Structures are given as structure tokens and as C-alpha cells.
Amino acid sequence: DVVMTQSPLSLPVTLGQPASISCRSSQSLVYSDGNTYLNWFQQRPGQSPRRLIYKVSNRDSGVPDRFSGSGSGTDFTLKISRVEAEDVGVYYCMQGTHWPPSFTFGPGTKVDIK
Amino acid sequence: EVQLVESGGGLVKPGGSLRLSCAASGFTFSSYSMNWVRQAPGKGLEWVSSISSSSSYIYYADSVKGRFTISRDNAKNSLYLQMNSLRAEDTAVYYCARDSMDWWGQGTLVTVSS
Fold first, then answer.
1. What is the model's pLDDT at position B111?
2. How far is CA B41 from the centre of its chain?
3. Residue-wise pLDDT tens digits, A21-35
4. In contact, B30 and B91? CB cutoff 8 Å
5. Which single residue of A37, B36, B111, B114 could bond A96 by disulfide (Cβ 3.0 to 4.6 Å)?
6. Mind listing the pLDDT tens digit for each residue in B80-100?
7. Looking at CA atoms only, how far is residue A82 from chain B in angstroms?
8. Which member of A90, A94, A107 has the closest CB to residue B101?
9. How far is residue B3's CA from residue A111's CA, in Å, rounded to a whole number?
């Protein structure tokens, strides 16, 4: 099974400063069709998860452009160019390349304000 | 707008059963695969099960295989999760999510305790 890891697991940030979260997979996430099915999700306190980024670098509708995704193969990054107060929450990466048999989430990175 | 509304959660004793429902609206339900994802209290996200648009393909996480059954009724725009032989470790908020997890419901809490 594919294992997803994230670092750091906790990220205190200063408002207006950039933030970066790393996600690594135990196997390449490049699918046979050439796509890489790596998504990023945001879960604000008390809310349901929300997809931010799909296929590594594509922002979902309504997602601010301060969020960006990059990476390839087994190494991926979510960046927030300038952190705002509403960005507080837990961020998860998830692979869909090796589905079936399963989707796999990373452990999550908790972002809060210093 | 896409809406997913879960229901059916509650308190159940170990070994008991529960049936969750997810009512979908705002999109052509019969055209999309659907998923159940759960989140234990204070923990991360765990994929539980997926079902294809016509119910031809069904997948389960190893942790629930043989105990949970996913199903759908496209005429009623509804997704279901029948949970049997429940264990304490099944305690979680259960979310339904569309396709590649682009939309999520608000979740329903399942508590397994004597």
C-alpha cells in the first residue's frame, strides 16, 4: 500500500508570511495516463474538509491564488504565499493514483498563527 | 450548488449496526462515483469505501471489509453505508464525498460505546 507522509506536522506561521508543507509518497504517483493524482485539502476548525488543489497544481474554484501546489513523482509541496488568519487549520495531501484499491491521506499538517 | 447531507449517525453498542445515508443534490448524482471517509476524534482522515456511478465497482478499506456495505440509489440521489459488527475504533465522523473528493458533506458522528 502507498504511504503518505507530511512535514512538518505542526507549522506556526506569522500573518503575511509564506508557509510551505511537504508531502511524500512511498511510490510514484504518476498514473499510466500521465496524470499525477495528488490532491490537497484544507480543514478549518470545526468544518468539513475542502479540496484546494487537484492533480498536483490545479486550484479548485474559489480557492485564493495565494495557494499553490507543485511537485512530481513522490515529492509534493503546498505553498501559501502570504498566510491569512482564515488559513488556520489542518492540511492533508491525498493520493488517488493507486485507487483502486484505496485513496490514501497524509497525516495532516496543523497550521496556526504564532 | 452541490450539496451532500449525511444522516443516520448516533450512539450504538459494540457489535451493533447502523445505516448512514447521504442525500445529494445540485448535480447529476448518477454520473459520479461516491465515497465515504471517516475521521476519528482528534485524528486524521481515513478513506472507508467507494462506489462507482452504476454500482458496478465497490471498494473497501481493509479496516471495514466484511463489516461495512456501501450502496446507492440513483433514483433517490442517495448514498448509503450499512455498518455491522461495529467496534469502538469505528467511532468517528463519517463524511460522504463526491468522486475525487471535490465536494464533502458536513458529516455525521458515529459513537460506538457500551
1. 98
2. 16
3. 999 999 999 999 999
4. no
5. A37
6. 999 999 999 999 999 999 999
7. 24
8. A94
9. 27
